[in-house]
Amino acid sequence: MSRSQRLLKLIHLLRSYRYPAPGYQLAETLGISLRTLYRDIASLQQQGASIEGEPGLGYVLKPGFMLPPLMFTEEELEALVLGSRWVASRTDSDLSDSARSALVKIASVLPKDLQHALDENTLFIGSSKEPAAKPPEFPQIRQAIRAEQKITIRYLDLKEQQSTRTIWPFALGYFDNLQVLAGWCELRQSFRHFRIDRILQLEVHEEHYPRRRRQLLNEWRKAENIPSQ
User: How far apart are CA 135 and CA 91, in angstroms?
Assistant: First the structure.
């Protein structure tokens, strides 16, 4: 592990602690000596990191510090590029543009050697046999999820039966050939999943649903036996 990677890992490690972390514990996790740890902490403090503490008492990182150069391993960069290319080719235009924009921003703050690794990435996303539909309602749905707002949809199920539902949307699932909206259905009083391509009409309400999105997400995960990420 290079020194720059070690410093980045130390920053991430300190961020994971809510209370002062003992120096010996940090050194053991990083696989370095206490002497090296003290030097690394001093180096980060010189770079502007607000690390408080001292030997024997532990160390804590105050919020707000960002390392100027973003440091990634080549594998991490490959994962970022591959994920961004999937988003760019499988989602609506807003998310596609955002994925490309995010890569440009990442590239602008990478050291030169990692910029070359980003430019020369050789992992690509293959074309799908049946491209997923990209309904114009996607931005509205994402905004409703972020704002925790109710939506009403006119929905055509797989039996070709239409119904009107008011739901509390909290998650979108993206698959190669379709996208699925997860929400609490007021009509059924339970969690339901709706294929985006079968939503005939959508209206976003100003009214917020009565429970927080995080709570709904956690309850849904338990109901569906989906592990937390």
Answer: 10
**17 & 44 share domain:** yes
As a residue count, the chain comes to 229
Determine the structural domain holding residue 147 and report its residue range: 138-224
**199-208 and 190-195 beta bridge pairing:** unpaired
Give pLDDT, residue 228.
Answer: 66
The answer to whether residues 97 and 87 touch, using CB atoms and an 8 Å cutoff, is no
Query: What parts of the chain have a pLDDT lower than 50?
Result: none
In this prediction, residue 24 carries a pLDDT of 92
Q: Which residue has the tokens 């532990």?
A: 58
The angle at the Cα of 6, spanning 69 to 9, to the nearest 5 degrees, equals: 80
